[in-house]
Amino acid sequence: xxxxxxxxxxxxxxxxxxxxxxxxxxxxxxxxxxxxxxxxxxxxxxxxxxxxxxxxxxxxxxxxxxxxxxxxxxxxxxxxxxxxxxxxxxxxxxxxxxxxxxxxxxxxxxxxxxxxxxxxxxxxxxxxxxxxxxxxxxxxxxxxxxxxxxxxxxxxxxxxxxxxxxxxxxxxxxxxxxxxxxxxxxxxxxxxxxxxxxxxxxxxxxxxxxxxxxxxxxxxxxxxxxxxxxxxxxxxxxxxxxxxxxxxxxxxxxxxxxxxxxxxxxxxxxxxxxxxxxxxxxxx
Length: 284
Fold this sequence. Notes:
Elements: E1 3-9, H1 15-26, E2 30-32, E3 41-48, E4 62-71, E5 73-75, E6 84-87, H2 94-103, E7 106-110, E8 119-120, E9 123-124, H3 125-130, E10 140-151, E11 157-165, H4 170-180, E12 185-195, E13 198-199, H5 206-211, H6 219-223, E14 227-229, H7 232-239, E15 244-245, E16 251-257, E17 260-268, E18 271-277
C-alpha cells in the first residue's frame, strides 16, 4: 500500500496513536506529516508505505486552525488539560483582542510552549516538563498570515481563526495575546482545518479508513508532479541506478509503469535519475 490518508484526529488521543492504528490496518510503514496535541482535533495527514519518503516535501506548508481562547486563567500546559498556575481579573473586550491579534500578523520570533514536542538536545520539552527538569527553549521564526477574532457564547471566551506557517503554536498565540493585554489566557479547544494540501472537508475518520482502505490517496494526487511514462527497459535502468536520456525540462517528475506510480525522478540536462523509488511489484 502506498499513498496518503487525510485523517480527522479525535480529541484525547495522540498523533502517535493514530499512526499505530493505521500501521496495524495497512501492515506498512506509516508516519504523520505534522503532529497535533492530544487536546487538538482535525486534519492529521498520514503517509503510508514509501510515501513516508516524502516527509521533506511537507516541511514548509500553510496551516489553518479554529481555536477557543479563554481569558482569566493560564494553565501550565496552556490548554484545558493542564493545572491552573495563574489567574487574572482582566477580561478584554472583542475589540481589544482583535487589535492585539492583528498586531501579531506577520513574521516574528515565537517562544514555543514548555509543554510541546520541541526537542532540545534530544529531549522533548514536554518530557522534561513532566519531570520538572529545566530546559532552555529558543524562539523560532514563524509567519502568521491572518487572525480573525469572533465572540463566543461563553463570557471571556473568543473564537480565533488562524492562518499560519508550519511550526506555529496556537497555544503560544493565545498566550502572547493575553500577555499584551496584561491578562492571562488558555486555549481550551483547537481544530486544525487545513494542513498544506489536506483540508478538513475531505478528511475521513479512522473508522471510515479501516472499513475502506481504498480511501488511500495516490502520491501524485497530492504532490502533482509532471508525469513521465516509462518502458520496461527504462524502468529497469532507473531501478538499477542508471541515468536515462529523455527530452524534458529540468526538475522533478513522477514516472509511471503500466499506469502505476513507479518513482520520482530528477531531470538535469536531458537526463533523468531515480530519486524516490515507489514501485513494490517485482516487474523490473
